[in-house]
Specification:
Glutaredoxin; alpha+beta; four-stranded mixed beta sheet; Ssp411; Thioredoxin-like_sf; SPT20 protein; single chain; Ssp411-like_TRX; five-stranded mixed beta sheet
Amino acid sequence: PSVPRHTNRLINEKSPYLLQHAHNPVDWYPWGQEAFDKAKRENKVIFLSVGYSTCHWCHVMEEESFKSKEIGDIMNKHFVCIKVDREERPDVDRVYMTFVQATSGGGGWPMSVWLTPDLKPFAGGTYFPPEDGFHRVGFRTVLLRIAEQWKKNKDALLASSQRILEALRHTSEIHVQGQESPPPSKEVMDTCFQQLSKNYDEDYGGFSHSPKFPTPVNLNFLFTYWALHRTTPEGAQALQMALHTLKMMAHGGIYDHIGQGFHRYSTDQHWHVPHFEKMLYDQGQLAVVYSRAFQISGDEFFANVARDILLYVSRDLSDQAGGFYSAEDADSYPTTTSREKQEGAFCVWTAEELQALLPDPVEGATEGTTLGDVFMHHYGVEQTGNVDPMKDPHQELKGKNVLIVRCSLELTAAQFGLDPGRLDALLQECRNRLSTARAQRPRPHLDSKMLTAWNGLMISGFAQAGAALAEQGYVQRAAQAAAFLRTHLFDPASGRLLRSCYRGKDDSVEQSAVPIQGFLEDYVFVIQALFDLYEATLEQGWLEWALHLQHMQDKLFWDPKGFAYFSSEAGDPSLLLRLKNDQDGAEPTANSVTVTNLLRAACYSGHMDWVEKAGQILAAFSERLQKIPISLPEMARATAIFHQTLKQVVICGDPQGEDTKEMLHCVHSVFSPNKVLMFADGDSTGFLYRQLPFLASLERKDGKATAYLCSNFTCSLPVTSSQELRGMLSP
C-alpha cells in the first residue's frame, strides 16, 4: 500500500470504523470536548457523521465524498467535522437519529447531521451522493448551502434548533401516566398476535414484503404465545408462523450455506439476496431461537442450524482471549488483484466456477450427472446468474449466484435417481469443497471491536443452545466469554461495566485511553446472559455477579419519577436528551428484556421490589403496549410472564448423580417461557441458600434427585420422575 497523503486525529482511536477514516483529507475529530471547544471558539457549525465499520453505504459515502480532496476542503473550511462509531456510542447515535427520523421521516446510516456549536441539530439526513442528481441534492451543494445559511441567517437557525430540541424532548418522553398499572396481558398478547398475523407472509414467512429482517423478537413472542395457548387454533397458528419463517430463512440466501451464520437482512421477499454483512447480535439471538424451535418441535433441522451458527461464531468471530468480535463486512475484493471491493464478492458463485470445482461424475445417478449438476439444481444456480437485476442496483452480482435451497432433499434425490441419505452426504462434500475454495478469496473486513452488550447476547446463544442441545462445549464457550467480560469489560473498583474493548497488536486486548462506560443495554444483556449461564452451569458465581449488576443498573439508569430505565446515565453535558427506547427491532430494547431480568432476579434473591419495578416499566409503556404491541413484542411477551408469575423449578440432588443429570436434562429440553431453574445441593453456606432461606426446607425424597415446582417461594409436592416433571413444566 502507498503511504497515505493525509492523516487526521482519528489515527489515535481504537474503533475500526474511526480508523477507516483516519486518512481522509477531512480534518475529522472524535466526539469530545476538543471538537466542541473548537466549534464554539471559531463559531462554526458541527458536521456530525455517524456510521459503523461494516455499513455498505458508509463505505460508499466515504469513497465518493470523504476521500475527495475538493469536498474535504469545503468541510474543513466551513465546519468542525466529527466522526462517531454508532456501536461505540449508541447514546449519541440515538439522540441525533431521533432528530433525523422526526424531520425527514426516515433514518439509517451513514447519518449526516449539522449541529450548532452547542450541539443542537438543525439539518440532517443519511447518505448524500457527492453531486446533484435528478432526484437528490448532492453533498457538496448541501455543505455550501448550510455554510451560506449559517453566515446569513445564524440567529434563525439557532432559534429553529432550540424549537426542534424542545419538540424532541416532548415527543420522546416515556413516563407513567398518573396511577397507571401494568396493562392486562391477555389483551396485549392477543393484539400483538393479531398484528403479527396481519403482516405475516404465508408463502415465505417473515413479517414484511421487503426488505426482510430476521427479527428474533417476533419469533420469541410467537413461541411464548404458543406455549400459553397450545391447545387453541391461534396457538397452533403462532407456532406454524414461527417454524415456517425459520425454515425459509435457513433455506434462503440470507443464510450462508458454505460458511454458516446469517447475513443481516434480505433485500427481497424470498430471503434470497441478502445485504451480506454478518452481525454478532443476529447470531446470538438466532442461536437461541433455533434452539427453542428444536425444543418445541424435536426437529433436528433446527438444532443443526443452531450448531452451524455457533460454528461460524467460534471460527470467525472469536478472539483468542474469549470475547466475540462485532461483525464481518458485506464488501470485499473479488480477487487478490482487484482494485475495488464489491458487495457479496466473498459469498457468490458463477455457474462456471461451480462446474470446475465439482466435476466428478456421480455413481448411481442418471448418466452423465456430475456433482456440479446435483449441487446447482439443489441450490438454484443458473448459468447466467440467479440474482434479480432489480435487487442489484450497482450490477455487482451480475452473472453471479446467491445459493438458495430450491428443492427438498427428496425432490433433488428423485430428479437424479439418488437415495436422499446419499444425496445429503454428497451435498456436504460439495459444501466442504466450496468452503476450501472460498478460503482462497480475500476475506471481508472484520470489525474486531468487542461490545459488552453484543457479547451478552452471544453468551446467551451459547448457554441456551448448550443446555437445549445437551452440548457441554457450548456451555463452556459461554463461560469463557463471561470470564472475558469480567476481566476486560468490568471495573471491579467501581463495580461498573465498560462498553467496549478492542483487538490490539499481536492479538492483545486493548482499551481506549478513556474507556467508554457501559450503557443500559450492556447491563441488561449481560445480566440476561449470566442468568442463562447459571441455568446451564449451576455455578452460583454467575448469579451473584448478575444480581450485583442489577443493583448497579438500578442506581445508574432508573427513572424514579417517570419509571423505566434511561438508555444512558445522567451527567454527560454533551448529551441533549436522556432517552428510553420504545421499539424492539433487530435487537430487543433494553427495557423489554429487563422486565424478565427483574422477575428472574426476584426469584433468585427474594427482593420483591424488583417485581414492583418490572410492573412499573410495563405501566410506563402501557399505552404503546395496548395500541401497537407489534413494536414491542419482547415486552408484550414479558407482560404475560409478569402476570403468570415465574415458576421456580428447584432440583435437589447430587450434581454428579445420573438421576440429577436426567432431571436437569428434562428441564433443559422443555420450552417453558415462565420458568427459572435453581439447584439446591444442600450446601447451606452457598450464595443461593443465603438469598433464599426456604431452600433449606427442601430435600431429596428417598435419596433420589427430587424436583419441586415453586411459586412465590411456596412449593408443590416433590417429584422424582422426569416424566412427571415434564408434565409440570408444560402449561
